[in-house]
Amino acid sequence: MEEQLQQIKDQLYRSETNFPPLWERLQHCGELRAWFKYYHGPNQWVQRYYQEEHVYLMSRVLIVACLFNNGKMILRTYKLDDMARIEREYSFADNTNQTLILSGVAITFKTIGEKKRPENLIFQRPVPEEQGDPEGFERLINLLD
User: Fold this and answer.
1) Beta carbons of 143 and 59 less than 8 angstroms apart
2) Coil, strand or helix: which one is 41?
């Protein structure tokens, strides 16, 4: 577990300030099962304005950590019991049209309380060019169900 925590800390933007609150949340939410780094750097074309985004699968929840350029952070927690549907999208790995790979995931949550529409989380396969972690993405998504 200590090795995993050090890897997480080493990946975080401004880890000296962002790791302590993240570590507190991770400790509170059960066993760490898998994680991946979604991307590094804002991308206005797909309306991602965070410096980094990380996703952690715990035994009871999914935690999404959004880190901003100024050092601030948002931690979002989604209960696994509230997931209603997981859609996996597969596309071809290259132009040969021979091998399908997991290219995107849409997680729909049950409606709760006064909400009329369910909330969705949508992830596209991270790309190494944005310092994303496609292997971690597949590992985490394979554990969902």
Assistant:
1) no
2) coil
